[in-house]
Amino acid sequence: MSDVEAVPKVQFNVYLPPGLVRRIKHLAVDEGASLSALVERALTAYADAEEAS
């Protein structure tokens, strides 16, 4: 089990432009990842970079 799957999850809704949602869905499919896993990785990378600066 990966670190992404090991922790409990909570659901929250965000509103994004339709074009961005399409792009993210396609990226997830291309990577063989779930949409949740891809968004989690992206938000974690962003938060880590912000906290490091």
UniProtKB/TrEMBL annotation:
Domain Ribbon-helix-helix protein CopG: 11-49
Alphabetized Gene3D superfamilies for the sequence: Met repressor-like
Pfam families referenced in this protein's UniProt entry, alphabetically: RHH_1
InterPro entries found in the cross-reference section: Arc_rbn_hlx_hlx (IPR013321), CopG (IPR002145), Ribbon_hlx_hlx (IPR010985)
SUPFAM superfamilies reported in the protein's UniProt record: Ribbon-helix-helix
Full protein name: CopG family transcriptional regulator
Record lineage: Bacteria, Bacillati, Actinomycetota, Actinomycetes, Kineosporiales
